[in-house]
């Protein structure tokens, strides 16, 4: 009885709805999809009750429309997450439970999968909190964006942004190198002729300024804006933000270029003598010193993805280094002439190089394959990649900015260009700002490049607006989370993989690392006996009794190594004698 | 069945009675005499009483005499009337008849030890089984909070709070005296009557559960008893043989099915088989080495059957020790391994490879026909704007003009010519490179080095001349800029020629060689600048030239690199082990070489190492060294439930740090496995803790048990009385 009447009612009700045509609400679409999503579940669960239930639902809906007796959630269930966002936070592939797996395995996989999914969903949900978008520059019709001058841009934008285009006329102390701090707040400039200054470039507040009275090859901020390193004529110096000399590191001599690995607290330096050295700034120790045997090292970049150092060489090769290996991880021939400059993008996917052969090449450094190359008539002396993947190249006195270089589409015309006076010596994008800093012979120029900086910053990692207290806290946390230099390698995910080396290999490595064999058997040492039985002769006799055992071990070892060379497992199949030898070997192990 | 029960008791009482009668006959006689004496005294003769008077206490029940004393009571005597009564159903009648006809006596119960053993087994099973679930559940639980049943931290009812409260202060005491004086209830009872009732009901439920358990145990026990007895009884060897055979057949059938449906299970079975095979191989069973076999061996000469028996034994041994052919996983594994070893770059976009670059690319035919060049140009230019075409045409004219002009001038300063030169050089280099690659395996690198040197020199020349371009004016610079374009356009024709040559080459060369130009370089595309580079001062130009000269001084980049790479490759290759001992088997001495057979036999070539990562990347050297530093932090052994590394790696693929996750997720992921309340005593778990919550489950168990008992009854059919409680 009860089931029949509502059906009739609903049908009429629906018709009415159609006639009235209620104003469309923005949530209607989602609601429909929700319903459609839930349908199959219902059908699966209660095929019999389906009809009944749906009618009840409609009834309640109707009541809501008519009298609004009960409040109903217009968006029932969890808010849907767009697939694209989910994909952004996807980590690795899902693992399927193999057929016939043990119960424990099933559970372990299920739990981990559930956790991963939960983490992914939550991360995707929180992506909502990154609302900022990157800017861009758009010209009029038939107008190339690269013809728009900086002055025009500065005039057009708001005052704060406009003030980001400025020049520092410092013609006295020669071409300048520069570095922005990780938060993008502070700027460090170092003139070739000894002028070093650090500036809060947004407020134009000069923190310190000095002349070190020596040639300055490079300047670099350390982990905070409280300390910076200056590579001077002979040694490496570390100053604090007031310009007080903290350290003179004499172990690091003739440094030409420096890179700071923020998560490892490592300062990597490349010297004129061909040494690549790593200084752990948290403990002040030299972690590794590698003789590259490649001559003068004046081209250097770091891969922010895996903390591998890239070095460019005069013979046209680019080599990749980690502090854990005395030889280069990878060496690739990139240019015919010397490599002049190189840059690696934030994701560690692309490397851009320029050489004396006046070419600009883009490499996929995961596959070590060239993607495309282009010919710059003037050649690029300096390269820099922004957080959003804009490439700036210094060709002579002109700075060109290219868009969409990374990827498969070839380089076309520059996105922006700016002419300066004097030779360009340093190029760096300011993090989280649409600003490109240029150090040149006549001083320093800050150039506005719309769309260069990452609009959203991680306040727990690099917060441009952090206070003094926050910086202190961050420093402690960062030190606690410091990544050990042993973990640097081509694959940063190496740690999450199972080491599949054999026991023998690991044992060999252990011996190498320790300098002795921890599993080695002690040499036979005869006990001292009394009553004249420990005379030299007696001891010798006793030694001789067991001497053959050592000999056997030695023999078997040599034979075994031979067998191992012949084939890895063939010695299992040999005759009894070899079996015995194997046993002895195992015992001796 | 009740009838049967009655019969049993009667038989039993009968025996007892007889026994007692024999024993007590003496007393009875006396008693009779006494009675008679008393009777005679009274004069009037008393009638002899044979009936039992129920009222008397002293009267023994053994006075009751059946008609035929000493006879056994039959069922028919007791239930004879059932046949005649019309009320009784036919079914029961039939059953009774059947019972009568059966002559079976009751079986003896198992002896005490055995019963105890069986019952102990079951009691233990039952005891353990009820804990099993909760233990498993706790093991699986992501987090355990101890003490186990903590009071909820939420708000409590007033009564619960008040219950533990005592009057302390004098004021309170006075108030309470007043309250009690008026007989008012101080507080509401904690439990309403209804609740208390329900609590009682719970206890009943528990009783039921207990009863169900007991019943189950009893039923199972009886079932097992019966089964044990039945199987004990059978002595026939043939029966067992048949049984075994049937079992085997059944198993084979099942196995065949399993192979199709459940291959994992089948593998398990196979493993079991393998184990049995191993056992068989280890034991001396079926090897005709026992006492019986020896005796048979003596007989075998004369007795055919003995021989047969022995052969059978051997056959059995053979069957059992036959190796099973297990479908190996090797293929699958190898595929997986392959997948793992394939470097990441396989997935990367490499679509746009246009492998031409003037300095690396080999123009393999020295002089390209002009026509083809033009056509290529046309194809390209057709796509581009007309303006450009015009420019190119103009440029072409200019170039020709210049060529004409400079024909008499010996100096090679023209860009175009230089280009051609360069290309020739490169092609020469490439051919040399190929030669070197192919010959290197056969002979030393002496010759190739020479070749490379020459190539290098020529190359260098080309480069140097490139460095010597004089830019005279802006117009010239413009021209130079445009020079680049047509060259870039011309280049695509190269791969075709390269392919042509590749086909002409013998195939065995092809496999080792990697075409440099295909992988190494890409076509350079000229970029138009918004600003033309300013005219460079003469001084600076000189400086630049000197820099370039310095950079290229005495080195041929490519050949150096190739040498370096080949050196690394050679270092990675395992050396040939030479075990020849001169003088063994033939003459030895200075200048005598060991013979060929010896070299063949004692020079051991080792298996080549896995292919290098940079095998297909001619311009890359990837170090094959293992980084031991990371290895010390890595997991080296697969943790327990995981079967392969992929499973484990995927289980730890999500980072748990707060850098990558939201706060809640981090908390969730890193929550401790065990949480204990500070200062709380952690009592051992009691049965009631978890049983209360699972009454419904046990109810289900009870139902299941009932069903089970009925099935047991169906099988045994005799132990009705044991299940009377249940019924």
From TrEMBL, chain A:
Q: Which residues form the signal peptide?
A: none
Which segments constitute the BING4 C-terminal domain? Answer: 414-492
Q: Where in the cell is it found?
A: Nucleus, Nucleolus
Entry's Gene Ontology BP terms: maturation of SSU-rRNA from tricistronic rRNA transcript (SSU-rRNA, 5.8S rRNA, LSU-rRNA)
Renumbered to this chain, region (Disordered) spans 1-95
Recorded GO cellular component terms are: 90S preribosome; small-subunit processome
Record keywords: Nucleus, Phosphoprotein, Repeat, WD repeat
Looking up Pfam families in the UniProt record yields: BING4CT, WD40
Give the WD repeat ranges. 332-373
Biased region (Basic and acidic residues) positions are: 25-45, 55-75
Q: What is its main location?
A: nucleus
Q: PROSITE patterns from the entry?
A: WD_REPEATS_2 (PS50082)
Q: Quote the subunit structure annotation.
A: Part of the small subunit (SSU) processome, composed of more than 70 proteins and the RNA chaperone small nucleolar RNA (snoRNA) U3. Interacts with DDX21, NCL, NOP2 and EBNA1BP2.
The task this protein performs is described as:
Scaffold component of the nucleolar structure. Required for localization of DDX21 and NCL to the granular compartment of the nucleolus. Part of the small subunit (SSU) processome, first precursor of the small eukaryotic ribosomal subunit. During the assembly of the SSU processome in the nucleolus, many ribosome biogenesis factors, an RNA chaperone and ribosomal proteins associate with the nascent pre-rRNA and work in concert to generate RNA folding, modifications, rearrangements and cleavage as well as targeted degradation of pre-ribosomal RNA by the RNA exosome.
Identification of the protein by name? WD repeat-containing protein 46
Q: Which organism is it from?
A: Cyprinus carpio carpio
From TrEMBL, chain B:
Q: What segment(s) does the record annotate as region Disordered? A: 408-464, 487-511
What are the protein's UniProt keywords? Nucleus, Phosphoprotein
**Family assignment from sequence similarity:** Belongs to the UTP14 family.
Name this protein carries in UniProt: UTP14C small subunit processome component
Taxonomic classification: Eukaryota, Metazoa, Chordata, Craniata, Vertebrata
Acidic residues: which segments have biased composition? 408-427
One of the protein's GO biological processes: rRNA processing
> Where on the tree of life does the source sit, at the highest rank?
Eukaryota
Record's Gene Ontology CC terms? small-subunit processome
Localization of this protein: Nucleus, Nucleolus
């Amino acid at each position: 009885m009860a089931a029949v009447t509502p059906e009739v009612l609903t049908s009429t009700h629906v018709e009415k709805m159609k006639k009235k045509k209620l104003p469309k609400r923005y949530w209607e679409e989602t609601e429909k999809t929700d319903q459609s999503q839930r349908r199959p579940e219902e059908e699966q669960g209660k095929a019999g009750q389906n009809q009944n239930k749906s009618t009840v639902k409609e009834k309640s809906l109707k009541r809501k429309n008519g009298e609004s007796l009960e409040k109903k959630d217009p968006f029932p269930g969890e808010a849907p997450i767009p697939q694209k966002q989910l994909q952004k936070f996807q980590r690795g592939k899902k693992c399927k439970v193999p057929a016939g797996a043990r119960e424990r395995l099933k559970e372990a996989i299920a739990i981990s999968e559930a956790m991963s999914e939960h983490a992914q969903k939550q991360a995707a949900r929180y992506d909502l909190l990154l609302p900022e978008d990157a800017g861009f520059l758009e010209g009029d019709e038939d107008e190339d964006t690269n013809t728009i001058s900086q002055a025009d841009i500065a005039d057009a934008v708001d005052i704060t942004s406009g003030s980001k285009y400025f020049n520092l006329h410092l013609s006295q102390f020669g071409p300048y190198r520069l570095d922005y701090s990780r938060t993008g707040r502070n700027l460090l400039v170092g003139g070739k002729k000894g002028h070093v200054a650090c500036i809060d470039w947004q407020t134009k507040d000069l923190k310190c300024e000095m002349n070190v009275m020596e040639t300055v090859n490079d300047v670099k901020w350390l982990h905070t804006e409280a300390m910076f390193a200056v590579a001077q004529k002979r040694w490496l110096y570390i100053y604090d933000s007031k310009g007080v000399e903290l350290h003179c590191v004499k172990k690091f001599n003739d440094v030409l270029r420096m890179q700071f690995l923020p998560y490892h607290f490592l300062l990597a330096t490349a010297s004129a003598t061909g040494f690549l050295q790593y200084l752990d700034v948290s403990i002040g120790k030299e972690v590794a010193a590698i003789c590259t045997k490649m001559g003068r090292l004046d081209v250097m970049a770091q891969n922010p993805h895996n903390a591998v150092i890239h070095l460019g060489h005069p013979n046209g090769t680019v080599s990749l280094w980690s502090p854990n290996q005395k030889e280069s991880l990878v060496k690739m021939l990139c240019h015919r002439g010397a490599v002049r400059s190189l840059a690696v993008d934030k994701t560690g996917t692309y490397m851009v190089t320029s050489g004396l052969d006046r070419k600009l090449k883009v490499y996929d450094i995961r596959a070590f394959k060239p993607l495309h190359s282009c010919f710059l008539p003037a050649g690029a002396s300096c390269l820099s990649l922004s957080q959003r993947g804009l490439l700036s190249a210094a060709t002579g006195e002109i700075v060109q900015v290219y868009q969409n270089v990374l990827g498969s589409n070839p380089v076309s015309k520059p996105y922006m260009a700016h002419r300066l006076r004097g030779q360009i010596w340093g190029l760096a994008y300011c993090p989280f700002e649409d600003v490109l800093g240029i150090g040149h012979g006549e001083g320093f120029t800050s150039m506005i490049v719309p769309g260069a900086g990452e609009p959203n910053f991680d306040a727990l990692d690099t917060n441009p607006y952090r206070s003094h207290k926050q910086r202190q806290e961050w420093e402690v946390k960062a030190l606690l989370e410091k990544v050990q230099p042993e973990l640097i390698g081509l694959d940063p995910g190496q740690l999450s993989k199972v080491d599949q080396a054999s026991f023998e290999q690991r044992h060999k490595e252990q011996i190498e690392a320790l300098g002795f064999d921890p599993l080695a058997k002690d040499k036979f040492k005869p006990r001292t006996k009394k009553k004249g039985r420990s005379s030299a002769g007696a001891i010798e006799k006793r030694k001789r009794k067991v001497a053959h055992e050592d000999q056997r071990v030695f023999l078997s070892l040599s034979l075994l190594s031979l067998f191992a060379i012949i084939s890895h497992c063939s010695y299992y199949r040999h005759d009894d004698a070899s079996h015995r030898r194997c046993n002895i070997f195992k015992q001796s192990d | 069945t009740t009838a049967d029960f009655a019969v049993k008791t009667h038989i039993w009482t009968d025996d007892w009675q007889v026994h007692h009668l024999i024993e007590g006959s003496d007393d009875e006689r006396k008693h009779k005499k006494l009675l008679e004496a008393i009777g005679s005294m009274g004069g009037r003769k008393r009638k002899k009483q044979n009936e039992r008077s129920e009222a008397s206490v002293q009267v023994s029940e053994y006075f009751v005499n059946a008609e035929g004393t000493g006879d056994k009571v039959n069922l028919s005597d007791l239930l004879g009337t059932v046949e005649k009564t019309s009320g009784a159903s036919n079914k029961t009648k039939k059953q009774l008849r059947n019972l009568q006809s059966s002559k079976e006596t009751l079986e003896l119960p198992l002896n005490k030890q055995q019963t105890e053993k069986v019952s102990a087994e079951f009691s233990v099973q039952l005891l353990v089984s009820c804990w099993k679930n909760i233990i498993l559940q706790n093991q699986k639980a992501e987090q355990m909070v101890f003490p186990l049943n903590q009071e909820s931290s939420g708000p409590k009812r007033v009564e619960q709070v008040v219950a533990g409260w005592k009057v302390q202060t004098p004021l309170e005491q006075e108030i309470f005296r007043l309250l009690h004086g008026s007989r008012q209830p101080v507080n509401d009872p904690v439990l309403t009557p209804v609740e208390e009732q329900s609590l009682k009901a719970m206890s009943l439920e528990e009783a039921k559960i207990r009863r169900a358990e007991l019943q189950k145990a009893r039923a199972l026990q009886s079932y097992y008893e019966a089964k044990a007895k039945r199987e004990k009884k059978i002595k026939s060897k043939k029966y067992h043989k048949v049984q075994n055979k049937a079992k085997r057949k059944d198993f084979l059938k099942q196995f065949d099915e399993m192979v199709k449906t459940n291959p994992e299970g089948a593998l398990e079975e196979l493993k079991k088989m393998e184990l049995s095979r191993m056992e068989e191989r280890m034991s001396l069973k079926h090897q005709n080495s026992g006492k019986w076999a020896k005796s048979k061996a003596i007989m075998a000469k004369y007795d055919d059957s003995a021989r047969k028996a022995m052969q059978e034994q051997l056959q059995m041994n053979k069957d059992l020790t036959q190796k099973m052919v297990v479908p190996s996983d090797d293929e699958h594994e190898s595929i997986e391994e392959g997948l793992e070893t394939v470097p990441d770059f396989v997935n990367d976009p490499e679509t746009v490879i246009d492998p031409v670059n003037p300095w690396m690319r080999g123009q393999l035919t020295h002089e390209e026909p002009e026509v083809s060049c033009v056509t290529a140009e046309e194809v390209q230019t057709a796509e581009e704007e007309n303006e450009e075409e015009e420019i190119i045409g103009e440029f072409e004219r200019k170039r020709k003009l210049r060529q004409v002009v400079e024909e008499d001038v010996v100096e090679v300063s023209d860009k175009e010519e230089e280009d051609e030169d360069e290309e020739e050089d490169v092609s020469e280099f490439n051919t040399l490179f190929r030669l070197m690659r192919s010959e290197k395996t056969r002979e030393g690198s002496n010759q190739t080095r020479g070749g490379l040197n020459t190539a290098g020199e020529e190359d260098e020349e080309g480069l140097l001349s490139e460095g010597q371009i004089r830019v005279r004016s802006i117009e010239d610079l413009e021209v130079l800029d445009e020079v680049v374009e047509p060259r870039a356009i011309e280049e695509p024709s190269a791969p075709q020629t390269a392919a042509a040559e590749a086909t002409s080459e013998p195939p065995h060369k092809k496999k080792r060689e990697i075409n440099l130009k295909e992988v190494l370089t890409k076509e350079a595309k000229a970029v138009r600048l918004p600003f033309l580079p300013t005219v460079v001062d003469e001084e600076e130009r000189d400086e630049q030239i000197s820099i370039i000269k310095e950079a290229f001084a005495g080195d041929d980049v490519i050949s150096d690199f190739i040498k370096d790479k080949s050196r690394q490759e050679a270092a990675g290759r395992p050396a040939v082990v030479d075990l020849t001992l001169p003088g063994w088997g033939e003459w030895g001495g200075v200048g005598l070489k060991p013979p060929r057979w010896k070299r063949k036999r004692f020079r051991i070539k080792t298996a080549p190492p896995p292919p290098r990562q940079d095998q297909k990347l001619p311009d890359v050297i990837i170090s094959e060294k293992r980084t031991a530093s990371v290895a010390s932090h890595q997991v080296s052994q697969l943790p327990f439930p995981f079967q392969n590394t992929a499973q484990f790696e995927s289980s730890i693929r999500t980072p748990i740090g707060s850098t990558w996750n939201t706060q809640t997720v981090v908390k969730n992921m890193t929550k401790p496995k065990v949480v204990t309340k500070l200062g709380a005593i952690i009592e051992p778990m009691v049965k009631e803790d978890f049983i209360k919550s699972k009454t419904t489950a046990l109810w289900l168990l009870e139902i299941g048990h009932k069903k089970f008992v009925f099935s047991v009854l169906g099988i045994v059919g005799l132990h009705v009385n044991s299940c009377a409680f249940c019924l």
